[in-house]
Amino acid sequence: MASVAEFIELRESIEALAGQIALSVKNKALQDSKDRLEEANRKLEALKSMVASDVQVIVADRLSRQLTGLAEKIETMAAKKPAKKAAARKKQAETTD
Which domain holds residue 34? Predict the structure, then answer.
């Protein structure tokens, strides 16, 4: 069974990654955001396996919701990115005509 200290260390690691993901999303660094989200989700799964009290369940649920929200922001950013490239290509094609 994992100790409370290990749980706290893992929680803090996930929270730090969530902060980095939010910053990456703000800076529109898509691949970096995806990589960090993947790492955070792996750590969250490990954290969930360590849950031993009601408080830890609440923490795991909160982190899960936070990462889900960040994943949605990344998906939105990914969906917008190709559209911007296509618009730029179209504009460039118009100027060369």
Answer: 4-96
